[in-house]
Amino acid sequence: MESVKISIKEKDIEKGMENLAEEWKKEVSIPGFRKGKATIQVIKSRLREQLRAEALEQLIGEAMISAMEKYEPFIYGPPQLKNFNESEGNVEFETLLDVPPNIDIDLSNIKIEEGKKKDIEISGELKRLQEINSELQSVSRGIKKGDVVFLDIIGSDESISNYSFTVQNDSFSQEIEGLKSAEEKEVETKFPEDIPIRTLAGKKGKAMVKIVEVKKQVLPKLNDDFAKDLGFDNMKKLKAHLKEGITDEAAEEQKEEQKRKILEELVNLSKDVEVSPTLLDIQKGKGLSEENAIRGAKELILLDAIAVKEGLSVEEKELDEWMEKIAESQDDEMEEMGEEAIRFVKLSILRNKALDYIVEKVK
Predict the structure, then answer these.
(1) Distant-in-sequence, close-in-space partners of 351: CB < 8 Å, separation ≥ 6
(2) Which residues pair with residue 92 across a beta bridge?
(3) Is the pTM of this model over 0.70?
(4) 8 A C-beta contact, residue 216 and residue 144
(5) N or C: which end of the chain has fewer CB within 10 A?
(6) CATH assignment of 135-218?
């Protein structure tokens, strides 16, 4: 919470009363005058108490909005008034703003070890591409691990025909390994989670299994023809493309890990920072424990505080790009949020900028 002292002068209250009296003139009813015919001075004299109360309410609201402007969009909850005092017509009070606190942290004190560079290995990616582009061929031998099997399953209440299943290391796979096409077997085991038989899916049970067809996965050879099928001139260029992609991904992962460590150190250096109850409730609403919710709220508050302190801002182009992404994602919930969605996007952009600013200082 940030406390801001606000003073409203009597002359400003009088001016506000004058403006209100002008607004009320046409509609107000004053005894002894026809509607709309009472003078401003009469209205001010007869309705002074009501005019002053409403004028003061408007001025207080304007003053509080003005006090919050520099924190926009980092306003977590409604402001609170305290220490209200009226002296010689002037009004003074404090407003407690649920906003980021003023902080003074030497970011150069944040120390983290540089992450180890990841070994770039493309064999796994090549294997994945092989599997994606593999073919299935029927075989007459017994079922082996990795085969795709089509089978009928007849349970006590329900049955399924031509169910496709990839043989792995689970208990159901072990029961059917070695069987050939057209062979049958009664099994009692735990069945696959995705089997479309409600009484057996993910449960242990008994059923009759008939093998319809056994197919093995045939992987394409890793040669220039394979690369050409994927749109590359040769294997050398395909491997270079994969290496570049993995390198970029590894660099991005390392960058995100650095950011996480930096945020941890930032929170450790700011143990006494006050946590906004509003932000804390939002974190708890995500199902986080008390400790993790407090830490999450502190991270956001510190990022927001740095964004405010450094005067970070959102360019119109940046906002438009984010809003276009939301529209393309067809996120109905975000679109229904209207102005609140814009505020959420601004918060996201500014927090990312604040974190990038911290990372740069730590480097």
Answers:
(1) 300, 303, 304, 307
(2) 7, 85
(3) no
(4) yes
(5) C
(6) 3.10.50.40
Strand arrangement, sheet containing 90-97: 2-8, 90-97, 80-87
Distance CA 198, CA 360 (A): 55
Boundaries of every domain in the chain: 2-97, 135-218, 251-362
- pLDDT band, very low/low/confident/very high, at 180 (cuts 50, 70, 90): very high
Which overall architecture, per CATH, does domain 2-97 show? 2-Layer Sandwich (3.30)
Both structure tokens of 277: 């109850």
Whether 189 shows a pLDDT value over 90: the answer reads: yes
Q: Determine contact, residues 129/239, Cβ cutoff 8 Å.
A: no
Nearest to 44, CA basis, from 85, 86, 16: 16
* Measured torsion, CA atoms of residues 90, 91, 94, 97, in degrees rounded to the nearest 10: -110
> CB–CB of 93/82 below 8 Å?
yes
Contact 194, 201 (CB under 8 A): yes
The answer to whether residue 111 scores a pLDDT higher than 70 is yes
Tally DSSP H helices, then E strands, for the chain: 12, 8
**In the structure, what pLDDT confidence band is assigned to residue 319 with cuts at 50, 70 and 90?**
confident
Burial of residue 2 (number of CB atoms within 10 Å: 0-12, 13-18, 19+) = middle
